[in-house]
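Predicting structure from sequence has reshaped protein science. With that in mind, we have picked out one protein's residues alongside their backbone shape tokens:
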Amino acid sequence: QVQLVESGGGLVQPGGSLRLSCAHSGSTSILHTIGWFRQAPGKEREGVLFITSDGYTFYADSMKGRFTISRDDAKNSVYLQMNSLKPEDTAVYYCAAALFGPLTTTQAMDVSEYPFWGQGTQVTVSS
């Protein structure tokens, strides 16, 4: 079975950086899209960044220029590099994977399209 495990979360000061990792195992060759959602207390889960098997990326406009997604197939991992972190970035970050190839950012960020999820990793940005 497909399994996703996030790591790399923690406490950082505003302006700092973190790199989150999503290790995937199982029948991951069937996965077309892997990416990241986040959910802050009292808020809905929102899409952050996604990457397809073809190397296309989808991202939220608010993350552009600060967050970067990448993959390393040799290590069976997808990474979320987070720079210039702000307190509003505080959330639980979830790795998710889907079988489809999104055509738009809206499609890529539709949580109902993702059958595979990690357990989440906490990111806290505070002074």
Summary: The mean pLDDT is 92. Residues 6 and 22 are 4 Å apart (CA to CA). Helices lie at 105-108.
